[in-house]
Amino acid sequence: MKFRRTLLGLALAATALGFTTGAMAQAAYKPEYKMSLVLGPPTPWGMAGKIWADLVKERTQGRINIKLYPGVSLIQGDQTREFSALRQGVIDMAVGSTINWSPQVKELNLFSMPFLMPDYAAIDALTQGEVGKDIFARLDKAGVVPLAWGENGYREVTNSKRPVKSPEDLKGMKLRVVGSPIFSDMFSAMGANPTQMSWADAQPALASGAVDGQENPLFLFTVLKMHTVGQKFVTTWGYVADPLIFVVNKEIWASWTPADQAIVRQAAIDAGKQEIALARKGLTEADKPLLKEIAGMGVTVTQLTPAEREAFVKITRPVYAKWKGTVGNDLVTKAEKAIAARK
Ligand code: X2X
């Protein structure tokens, strides 16, 4: 009898303790967490955020409730400030592009180096290997908690003027580029006239004809129906692909129980895998259905021959050399080796 009472007492105490820790942890949780994104659903990027948020909500039984803020609306569309805002806690979490965070974390310019990653296996060799781990360690040091990789995708060039097959075709063409200096360097080297602006400003600039063209993954072309704003020419050259990274602000991360941290991390990994498949859909099949869809919109799609592509590689080589130093010679050499050894 006495034994049974002690056991009961222990069980009660444990329940009380468990309840208290649970309640305290709950009290520190915010009713809603703010997730920043540049592109919302239905783009793959937006779906990355939505899948992540949905999985977290479901697996934490609603303890962690995330709201999506596409269009980087928490920072008035100024995408190159996203990383600072994350660090400062203006943003709780994000699925962000390496391009937009590269002004604060120079190593992220690695992925923007011209013609570094010739195919999808090359992207995977970096993000899923040692280079990916190095980048995550660097992000951790820079003040955020990196959890998983996703993908914006290969950035193909589109314009309203003419088919682009050689650097000469770009001569003087006014192209919107992201606010990251390596892009201005690349397009200047190719003889174009690059103009830096946020994605929010790019859309009206394309519509009014203030710029002739832009470069972005092709799913964005179809989602936004870019042919309706005069973009009649697309060239697939695979010069740069930007991965996405799932991150959480450090203080927010520390406010969660270890069990919830594990759920958020695993949900990011699962969402990243699903999203990478979405980002590659229509482009990895032999007949590339996405290119057919775009051609079906009355757009001229130019796929460069290896020799034509080589002319672009050659003309951007000095930019590659210059940025190798900025990114870090060791990291770039490690990346080059990982790509050469890819399966
Ligand atoms: O601004 C762009 O071009 C975009 C949407 O691709 C990024 O945020 C990098």
Describe the structure.
With 343 residues, this protein is α/β, with parallel strands linked by helices. The protein has a single domain, classed as Bacterial extracellular solute-binding protein, family 7 (D-Maltodextrin-Binding Protein, domain 2), CATH 3.40.190. It is 49% helix and 17% strand. The protein is built from 15 helices and eleven strands. It has helices spanning 2-28, 44-59, 82-88, 98-101, 120-127, 130-142, 181-189, 199-208, 218-223, 250-255, 258-280, 289-295, 306-315, 317-327, 329-340; strands at residues 33-36, 66-69, 93-97, 144-154, 156-159, 174-177, 193-196, 213-216, 233-236, 241-249, 300-303. The strands form two sheets. Strands 7-6-8-5-9-11 form a six-stranded mixed β-sheet, sandwiched between helices. It has a five-stranded mixed β-sheet with strand order 2-1-3-10-4, with helices on both faces. Helix 2 links the parallel strand 1 and strand 2 (66-69). Helix 2 runs antiparallel to helix 11 (258-280) and helix 5 (120-127) crosses helix 15. Residues 1-20 have low confidence and may be disordered. (2S)-2-hydroxy-2-methyl-3-oxobutanoic acid is lined by residues 38-39, 79, 97, 99-100, 152, 178, 199, 216, 242.
